Amino acid sequence: MSKSTLNSSPPSADQAHDTPPPILDEGLIKHFLENQSKQLELQALEAKFREKQMEQDHAIAVQSLHIQNQNEDRLGKNKLVSQKQQYYFWGVIVVTFFVVLTITICLNKESVALEILKVVVPAILSAIGSYFYGVSQGEKKGKKSKYESYEEIEPEE
Fold first, then answer.
1. What is the mean pLDDT of residues 81-107?
2. Dihedral (C-alpha) 100, 106, 110, 115: value to the nearest 10 degrees?
3. For the chain, where are the E strands, in sequence order?
4. Calpha distance 153→157 (Å, rounded)
5. Residue 68 contacts by C-beta under 8 Å, 6 or more apart in sequence?
6. Residues contacting residue 112 through CB under 8 Å, at least 6 positions apart
7. Kind and range of the H or E run holding 135
8. Confidence grade of residue 80 (pLDDT, cut at 50, 70, 90)
9. pLDDT reading at 39 higher than 70
10. What is the CA radius of gyration of the chain?
C-alpha cells in the first residue's frame, strides 16, 4: 500500500481517545449563537408569512363561496323565470285550444270540434306518457341535481 492510503485511513479507537477535543473559543461560540438567533428570527418571519398567507387564502375562499352562492341564486331565479315562461306558453296554447273548441260548438260545428278532439287528445296523452317515461329513465340512470348548495362559513376570531 502507498503512504497516502495509510495516512488517510480512519483513526483507530486508541487514537480517538488520544486526540484532544476541538478547542471552542469564545468567538466561535458567539458566532454559533448569532447564527442560532438569526435562524430563529428567520423561522419567526416564515411563520408570520405562512399565517398571513393562510389568512389571505381564507379570505379568498370566503369571497369565492359568497360569489358562488350569488351565482346559484341567480341560476335559481333564471330557472324560475324560464319555468314561468314555459307555463305561460302552455297556458296560451290550452286557452287557445278551448277558445277554438268553444267557437266551433257555438257555431253548431260539433263535427269539427270532434275531429279536433280526435287529433289533439291522443297527442296530449302521448306527450304526457313520453314525459313520464323520460323522467323514469332519468331516475334509473341516477341523474342528480347539477347544482349543490353550500353554507357560508364565517371566520372564527
1. 90
2. 0
3. none
4. 12
5. 150
6. 104
7. helix 110-140
8. confident
9. yes
10. 42
